[in-house]
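dude i think i finally got it to work??
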Amino acid sequence: MATNTVGVPRQQGRPRSTDADERDAAPRGLAWLLAVTGAAGVLASWVITLDKFLLLEDPDFKPACSLNPVVSCGSVMQSEQAQAFGFPNPMLGLVAYAVVVCVGAGILAGARYRGWFWLGLNAGTFFGVGFCSWLMVQSLYEINALCLWCCLAWVATLLMFWAVTAHNVRTRALPAPGPLRTFFTEFGWAPPALHIGVIGMLVLTRWWDFWTG
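look at this
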């Protein structure tokens, strides 16, 4: 036991963690989820980008995921919605999902991010979910076709959004009442499961005659 200059004992060893430390830390499970879902998004964006270039070179090119009139990646790639910002959507995904991979890898390497960073990540994933939801509606009711790689990106985005939201609620980065924090602590799997279930039901009912015919 050491003493300071005024003779008061000073404990040695690892400093006691503070509330800020607890808030900045993130579980490894979340880190792996961000890394894996981000990688899935990068993969989907990369494949779609390559197929888009091939389609531009050869209008008769048929992507491997164009399996039938419903699951038709080519129809989605050739739509106006596929370049909502004036350039192919997957090029945005290549950047955004790569950032998420880096965040997950950083946590696994021991990095700690401040509350404002988590809120920023939450806002980014919220935008991603909103954009993916718009694309989903366009695919189901305007384009009338599905892209399997797009579906992978949708699922990856909503998983990372709900995971980051749950983390921010549990750590109080997002203000929430106690019962809501308890819910996200014990049933954090429920919102993404429900979200994916709703998407699955919409896809199933949209082409019910095709699936059951």
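The two ends are 79 Å apart (CA to CA).
im so relieved honestly
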